[in-house]
């Protein structure tokens, strides 16, 4: 799809059989009156470095800006980020995608490509294909925040702004902070994680129960996982990327990214930057503060009462913060 085409043109020729995309349209009932929504949804696959990469674009009709999102893991899927699609109602087109080997996307046969550098180049190629030469906003969540920082260090000339949500510039620092959080768990949970983690018995029921307690406190503070969150976690368990790049769980990072640290490089980032973090985030406010201190002019917003998935725990407040930042930097 040409990046220069007007959304209204797409709206008019949605049934043209020559189009190589599927565009869906929403009908809303507003005070008893049927109206068309202010965005459409395009989804499908694009070939990136020879692989089919899945994407989903919530395209605003009266578009003010484009926001590209990067999910976490590494190895999850875009699904848990879907609350950000609310921004399309305010004129912000939102692009989601499943990274290589994640969700619905194909996986490189060569696992030596399971790297952040490969992820940066994949994102760059996909953005050029779907967004074109226009500048856009980039948001990264968790590991996606690390990926977004790496992208900005290399390609910030393509960006209007950068949003890092529960993201990190240093895996070793993040692991140390997670170990501190484990020390503050109930003694039975702390001891179970230490005992069975040290022996590598990650499937032990007591270890699993302690892990779920950690997640309840520091991943998402909700009694029941939303379906989109569960779907992302299920993809992470089924695919190889999480195991190879991360490790057995959120706080045991033994994979290929275990030593990754670009803290010394992020001072190069000069685009407007918003950093968000939950008060109880597993990627702690200290980690967010390090990023804030290194990027001149960046803004840090701590969401009280929230943990890692703030976009679910405080959906409206989180999206208002993002919308304010984007509209202030268009």
Strand fraction equals 15-25%
Identify the quaternary structure here: single chain
Query: CATH-wise, what's the superfamily?
Result: Alpha/Beta hydrolase fold, catalytic domain
CATH architecture: 3-Layer(aba) Sandwich
Main sheet specs = 9 strands, mixed
Q: State the CATH topology.
A: Rossmann fold
Low-confidence stretches: 1-23, 27-32
| Sequence of secondary-structure elements | HEEEEEHEHEHHHHHEHEHH
Global mean pLDDT: 90
Number of domains: 1
Structural notes for this entry:
- The chain has 330 residues and is an alpha/beta fold.
- The protein has one domain: Alpha/Beta hydrolase fold, catalytic domain (Rossmann fold, 3-Layer(aba) Sandwich).
- 36% of the residues lie in helices and 22% in strands.
- It is built from 11 helices and 9 strands.
- It has a 9-stranded mixed beta sheet with strand order 1-2-3-5-4-6-7-8-9, with helices on both faces.
- It is globular.
- The protein starts with 6 loop residues before the first helix and ends with a helix.
Q: What descriptors fit this protein?
A:
globular; 22% strand; alpha/beta; Rossmann fold; 9-stranded mixed beta sheet; 330 residues; single chain
């Amino acid at each position: 799809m040409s990046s220069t085409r007007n959304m209204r043109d797409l709206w008019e020729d949605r049934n043209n059989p020559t189009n190589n995309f599927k565009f869906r349209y929403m009908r809303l009932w507003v005070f008893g009156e049927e109206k068309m929504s202010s965005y459409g949804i395009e989804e499908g696959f694009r070939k990136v470095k020879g692989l089919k990469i899945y994407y989903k674009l919530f395209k605003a009709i009266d578009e003010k800006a484009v926001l590209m999102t990067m999910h976490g893991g590494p190895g999850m899927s875009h699904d848990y980020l879907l609350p950000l699609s609310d921004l399309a109602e305010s004129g912000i087109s939102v692009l989601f995608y499943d990274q290589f080997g994640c969700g619905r996307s194909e996986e490189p046969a060569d696992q030596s490509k399971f790297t952040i550098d490969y992820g940066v180049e994949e994102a760059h190629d996909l953005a050029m294909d779907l967004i074109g030469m226009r500048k856009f906003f980039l948001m990264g969540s968790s590991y996606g925040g690390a990926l977004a920082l790496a992208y900005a260090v290399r390609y910030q000339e393509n960006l209007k702004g950068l949003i890092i949500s529960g993201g990190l510039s240093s895996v070793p620092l993040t692991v140390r902070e997670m170990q501190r959080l484990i020390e503050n768990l109930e003694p039975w949970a702390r001891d179970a994680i230490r005992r069975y983690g040290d022996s590598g018995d990650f499937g032990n029921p007591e270890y699993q129960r302690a892990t779920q307690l950690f997640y309840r406190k520091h991943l998402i503070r909700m009694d029941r996982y939303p379906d989109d969150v569960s779907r992302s976690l299920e993809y992470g368990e089924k695919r190889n990327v999480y195991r190879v790049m991360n490790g057995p769980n959120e706080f045991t990072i033994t994979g290929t990214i275990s030593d990754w640290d670009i803290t010394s490089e992020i001072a190069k980032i000069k685009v407007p930057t918003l950093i968000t973090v939950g008060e109880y985030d597993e990627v702690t406010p200290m980690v967010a503060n390090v990023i804030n201190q290194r990027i001149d002019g960046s803004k840090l917003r701590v969401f009280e009462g929230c943990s890692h998935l703030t976009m679910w725990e405080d959906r409206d407040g989180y999206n208002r913060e993002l919308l304010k930042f984007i509209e202030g930097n268009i």
